[in-house]
Description:
Layout: E1 19-20, E2 29-37, E3 40-47, E4 53-60, E5 65-72, E6 75-80, E7 87-94, E8 98-106, E9 111-113, E10 119-122, E11 125-128, E12 133-137, E13 147-152, E14 157-162, E15 169-173, E16 181-188, E17 191-198
Antiparallel strand pairs: 1-6, 2-3, 3-6, 4-5, 4-7, 7-8, 8-9, 8-10, 11-12, 12-15, 13-14, 13-16, 16-17
Amino acid sequence: MNTIIKTPILLLLLLMGTIQSLFAREDSLYLNFKQIQPFRYVVSYGNTSDGSNTLLKIMDSDGNLLLKNSFQGPIKKIYNFQELPKGDYTIILENEHSTMIQPLIKKKEMASFEISQRKLVNYPVIQVSSKNQVSVDLRTFNFKTKVKIIFEEDQHNYQEIIPLKDSRNYIFKLDKLPIGNYRVKLRVGDKLIQRDLTI
């Protein structure tokens, strides 16, 4: 199926007529493409975690959001970028644990994906153990920005900045907090990761 991008409104048609991929992959975000004509690509993308939501966004160089769509499972389809205005664009795939950022350049003669500029950000993972503690796995975290852990309850709110050190887990002792039902939040830049916790 051919998808022609003419305006930001028509970009919403990009996810229509998708073909579900029939092969399994390891648990991660992925974005693959094969050029079949100067402006046409067969593009496969998704999150291989079964039942996990993935967010797809396409943005222009001014930061304008042209497309935002949530989906499950792998996607495979043909894109035609011929009528997209010349310029730089960004395709973003995002789930709870990772974000993939893929630049796309549209020129007069062709459209091209800049593989060397692709970035993958792995976010910290919250783990609640049975030893009266919460750990935040920083071992796969590859984005040097401030990480804040927040514990929210109806009458109590506690937060602190997690020091960034490579290849370690950050341990938070729950005896610092009163008994209650909490929502544990990790704020990493503008990304929010959360889960519920009962003490």
